[in-house]
Amino acid sequence: MRVTVDGFVASPAFGGFIRYIESLTAALTAFGGVEVHHVAPAGQPFPDTSRFPDRVHVHEVPLSSPEG
Q1: How far apart are CA 64 and CA 52, in angstroms?
Q2: Distance CA 8, CA 4 (A)
Q3: In angstroms, what CA-CA distances link 16 with 4, 9, 31, 42, 57?
């Protein structure tokens, strides 16, 4: 099963959200066969996923300004 986590709302202003993502990732990867994909804006603070299995992927999405 593939699970995608929307990290667009994670920011230092929401301090508990990053910890929540870490806990959610740990719980999901405890199940066999679960692949976790995190999607977040490029350059945004995000949990360190290096301690998780290779089934965890972070995809940084470049954002442009409204002007272009």
Answers
A1: 30
A2: 12
A3: 19, 11, 24, 20, 21
Three-state DSSP class for 6?
strand
**Residue 11: per-residue pLDDT:** 63
CA 67 vs. chain centroid, Å, equals 27
H-type alpha helices, 9-61: 15-29
pLDDT digits (tens, 9 = 90+) for 12-65: 666 677 788 888 888 988 888 889 888 888 877 676 777 777 888 888 888 765
Q: How far apart are CA 66 and CA 3, in angstroms?
A: 29
